[in-house]
Amino acid sequence: MSRGSPQLKSSADLTVMRRAGRIVWEILQEMAAAARPGSTTGQIDRLAERLIAEKGAEPAFKGYRGFPGCVCISLNDEVVHGIPSDKRVIREGDLVSLDFGVVVDGFFADSALTVPVGVVSEEARRLIDVTRASMHAGIAAMRPGNRLHDIGHAVQQYVEGHGFSVVRDFVGHGIGRQLHEEPQLPNYGQPGTGLRLKAGMVLAIEPMVNAGTPEVEILSDGWTAVTLDRRLSAHFEHTVAIGEGGPDILTLPEGVPAGREGQLDLAVIPKTA
Ligand code: MG
Ligand code: MG
Fold it and tell me: Cα of 203 to ligand 2 centre, how many Å?
C-alpha cells in the first residue's frame, strides 16, 4: 500500500457514506439475529445478499481479491475472513464474528461485530465486552488535532489492561471511494505519533482481540485467519468520520445520541433460540 495522504471527504460525500453505513448496520442486525444454533454461515450470507439487493446497494466484499461471499463469518478461534459455507453449522455457545460492507453510489461502509450464540463461556462474554469497549476507546481518540496512533494506543491500553491481546497482522484503514484507503490504522501504537487527524478523514477502526496470544495463522483455504493458540477471538468495527467536534460513527441507525453508541452495539445480541 502506498503512503499517500488520506482523502478528505466533503459533506456531500459523508451524506452518501452515512446512507451506506445505515444499510450496513441494518443488515448486520438481521444477520446477528439469524446466527442461531443449527443455521449455517452459508444461509447468513444468502440473507445478506438478498437484503443488499432489496436496499439497492452492492456488496463490498464479494469478489474482493476473489473473496466468494458477501460477508466474512468467523467462528470462535477464527479471527477474520471466514468464508461462508452451507457446511458450516453454528452451535450453541459459539462466538460468531460478522464483518460486512456495502457500496452505495460509489462509496463504501464497513462494520463488524461479534455475537454470542445462546449461553457462552464467561471468558467469551468478557472478550466480546472488552473488544467492543476497546473500539469505543479508540473512537473517542478520533478528534481533529490528535495523532493517528493515539487511536491504536487507546485500543491497546484498554485491551491489555483487561488481560487480552491485540492482533497485529490486520489493521483498520481509511475508507471512502475504496474499501481500503490510506492510512492504515493499527490497533496498537505510540501516543503522539503518526499523522495529524483532520476533520473530513474517514477511518474504519476494527480491533481484533485474542483471549490468548496475538499471533494468527492463515488456514489452507487461503483466507481464514485463526489464532495460533486456537483460543477465542472477537472483532468489532465501525466506519467513523472525524468531524470538527469529534467522532461521528457512520455505521449506526439514524438519531443515535452521542455517547449512546456503546449501548446500541449491545442491542445486536440475539435472543437465545
Ligand atoms: Mg470490515
Ligand atoms: Mg475494515
Answer: 9
Return the pLDDT at 265.
66
Which residues are close to ligand 2, an ion, with C-beta < 5 A?
Answer: 110, 204, 206
For 169-190, the pLDDT digits (tens) are 999 999 999 999 999 999 999 9
Q: What is the mean pLDDT of residues 185-196?
A: 98
89-122 confidence digits (pLDDT tens): 999 999 999 999 999 999 999 999 999 999 999 9
Query: From ligand 1's centre to the CA of 206, what distance in Å?
Result: 7
Is-contact 249 204, C-beta < 8 A?
A: no
N- to C-terminal Cα separation, the chain: 44
* CB 75 within 8 Å of CB 93: no
Domain boundaries, the chain: 11-266
**The three grid cell numbers given for residue 126, joined into one nine-digit string:** 468478557
pLDDT of 147 above 80: yes
Ligand located closest to 187 CA: 2
Q: What is the CATH T-level fold of the domain 11-266, as seen in this structure?
A: Creatine Amidinohydrolase (3.90.230)
E strand spans, 85-244: 95-104, 107-116, 165-166, 172-174, 181-185, 202-205, 208-210, 216-218, 225-227, 233-235, 238-243
The rounded distance, in Å, linking the Cα atoms of 227 and 198 is: 35
Over its C-alpha atoms, the chain yields an Rg (Å, rounded) of 17
